[in-house]
Design goal:
The protein is mainly α. It is built from 16 helices and no strands. One of its GO terms (cellular component) is plasma membrane.
């Protein structure tokens, strides 16, 4: 069934995400907070397991192998954490963001997120790029994001919008991201081979947790009518904007890579790791940064659209590169 969908360019994970949003729209009370139990809290426990297994698969030797190319790493990390936010800030300075304040907040949140891990490495490998450098950059991006994303978001998130303090946000992300990753890395020698053998099932678990978090987030947002101002034309404009942002970043990174005379393998890493944003980190960080969980659905909307678009577009580019066209 999954192979059949992929033949037509339909990713089952993306379809499941939008299916979860549709279900949240139909019956928001199912996934909203309840007196005796919280579906969001149950999904939240799965996040720690995701990052633990990620650390379990993360080899110190692979990280060391990708460490040497400082110029490449600098380009990727500056693209992820500086270029993206500055481009969005430039657009925000030119338009009136008051009418759709939370949607613009979600767009900026997407721009501050770290790069993806697994899909970046897979796409770089498919296109014939420098895989050790991709592993290094994707991993380091995840760690840097724990500190840089809250710093960027502190510019806009106010206490009256249910925001945690900067210290609370960073501490929460350290507990939810860095501690499980560190624990997994400590056990890599003992259990790393097991995690690699069962990578497919662990990836399915990752996706199930993300779908659960997206579902509960949108249930809470629909329950509080947070999407009442998001019309279909606005949704189409958001999709066009996310696509334009991707190609703007891709074009800038391509020009910089050529200017710095990166070889083909390193240029692929810069393009793919630099232009991608992590939905996994988005779902985790939205819960930690914002105490008012009714806002998380609308905060996640831009990264969901960007994530779906980047999988399709980068997949096409990677296949063309692998074919030598």
């Amino acid at each position: 069934m999954f192979a059949f969908l992929k033949r037509f360019g339909l990713d089952p994970f993306i379809l499941s995400l939008f299916g979860a949003i549709f279900l949240a729209w139909l019956a928001p009370s199912w996934g909203a907070e309840h007196e005796n139990w919280s579906p969001a809290e149950v999904a939240g426990w799965g996040v720690g397991v995701i990052f633990f297994f990620y650390g379990l698969r993360l080899s110190g030797e692979k990280l060391k192998a990708g460490l040497q190319n400082v110029r490449l790493h600098t380009v990727v990390q500056l693209t992820t954490f500086v270029l993206f936010p500055l481009l969005v800030l430039a657009v925000m300075a030119l338009v009136d963001t008051r009418a759709n304040h939370y949607l613009w907040l979600g767009i900026f949140f997407m721009a501050t997120l770290p790069s993806t891990v697994s899909s970046s490495v897979v796409m770089v490998s498919m296109a014939g790029g420098n895989v050790p450098a991709a592993i290094f950059n994707a991993s380091v991006s995840s760690l840097i994001g724990v500190f840089v994303t809250p710093l960027w978001m502190s510019l806009f998130l106010a206490a009256d919008e249910g925001a945690h303090s900067l210290g609370e946000a960073i501490a929460g992300l350290v507990f939810q991201v860095l501690v499980p990753v560190g624990a997994g890395m400590l056990l890599h020698r003992r259990w790393g081979a097991f995690a690699e053998r069962h990578r497919r099932w662990l990836n399915l678990f990752d996706q199930a947790v993300i779908i659960a978090i997206v579902y509960t987030s949108f249930c809470e947002s629909f329950e509080m009518h947070m999407f009442d101002t998001v019309s279909w034309p606005l949704l189409a404009a958001l999709t066009a904007g996310m696509t334009a942002l991707f190609f703007a970043v891709y074009g800038i990174v391509l020009a910089v890579s050529r200017r710095m005379r990166f070889n083909r393998e390193d240029r692929i890493v810069a393009l793919f790791c630099g232009s991608k944003k992590s939905l996994v980190h988005g779902t985790v960080m939205s819960k930690v940064l914002v105490a008012d969980h009714t806002l998380t659905g609308i905060l996640l909307l831009p990264i969901m659209i960007y994530h779906a678009m980047q999988l399709v577009v980068v997949g096409i580019i990677a296949r063309r590169m692998s074919a030598g066209t």
